[in-house]
Amino acid sequence: xxxxxxxxxxxxxxxxxxxxxxxxxxxxxxxxxxxxxxxxxxxxxxxxxxxxxxxxxxxxxxxxxxxxxxxxxxxxxxxxxxxxxxxxxxxxxxxxxxxxxxxxxxxxxxxxxxxxxxxxxxxxxxxxxxxxxxxxxxxxxxxxxxxxxxxxxxxxxxxxxxxxxxxxxxxxxxxxxxxxxxxxxxxxxxxxxxxxxxxxxxxxxxxxxxxxxxxxxxxxxxxxxxxxxxxxxxxxxxxxxxxxxxxxxxxxxxxxxxxxxxxxxxxxxxxxxxxxxxxxxxxxxxxxxxxxxxxxxxxxxxxxxxxxxxxxxxxxxxxxxxxxxxxxxxxxxxxxxxxxxxxxxxxxxxxxxxxxxxxxxxxxxxxxxxxxxxxxxxxxxxxxxxxxxxxxxxxxxxxxxxxxxxxxxxxxxxxxxxxxxxxxxxx
Length: 427
What we know:
- By secondary structure, the protein is α/β, with parallel strands linked by helices.
- 42% of the residues lie in helices and 10% in strands.
- It has helices spanning 2-11, 15-26, 32-44, 48-56, 62-74, 78-86, 93-105, 109-119, 124-136, 140-147, 159-166, 190-196, 216-224, 250-254, 298-301, 343-352, 362-370, 410-425; strands at 181-185, 209-214, 230-232, 243-246, 284-288, 316-319, 333-335, 355-359, 374-377, 398-400.
- α1 (2-11) packs antiparallel against α2 and α9 (124-136) runs antiparallel to α10 (140-147).
- It is globular and about 65 Å long.
């Protein structure tokens, strides 16, 4: 009776109630099915350590091992996840794709790519991941051909939202024709909106008017930077247009072979307001070490703040870490987060700075697009904009310093200090 109730609560969108009831039930009864369900609920809530604890107490069948490997991966124990999966012998196709995730996390790119290549032509998950490797190999069009399979999986762009919420499908998508009005739909996170707005003007030659659809916070930034015909995402069903362009795939539809092709930098520019709180005779170094904690892989891109505090020897440190800040109270860092209510506020701070140092998050793209000097510290497995050593998405105001070792930032931070010393001594 109770196990069935737990299952029904989970299936009917009541995971919290299902979890609480499962915890109470398992204190008194042993039930493998409910324990497995509780492990899944912990996993979905990103409580991977608790999920793993339950899985390790269960009989070690292949299904349990597969789930155990997933938890180990998210706990940044990819070598163990790889070992668990390989212990199962011959893997089915989806498990092979899981294995490539664990291999890639450790920087074993060659082995991972070799597994994905034959699967990429008929399995969307494999195609999406394989596309990332091709982009890293400077193959923009070929990489996009595969990475766009992620749209079917709801992991690339928002075409699925347009279809499910507004009934706007691929028949409404621009395909090279000349029309009166193009709806340029900025998708993904706010960083993606800042990256891909660069291509909006390239559609002017295919229409009389380009209308840009975006989030509220990015809309204000674009307005401040002089962009016109701006609308909120939801306005796409209340505004006239002929064809839409999913912005994250704009390079693909435009047939570009380089992400900076036909782009004029800086493309986010406005007259900044002075920031009185940054008045100092020292060099001004702005830092941010974490992204949005809701991002699935945020734990991999976050940098321990303690490793950045020594940068104070090069100048005055200013923090713009808003979410989940763990800045030590005794740190010699001026916290500017209370000044930020919009992206234009961040723009002003960046314009006032001599150097920005940031993890892989939207602030990196704002700095890059406005022409500010920035050092970006992407994780070992970076976003597509940082995946290639030679195909750059920004001019030389952006320095990309990728994590050098799995689960370890030490060598990267050592190199960072050398780069900062060089950059500031020449500025």
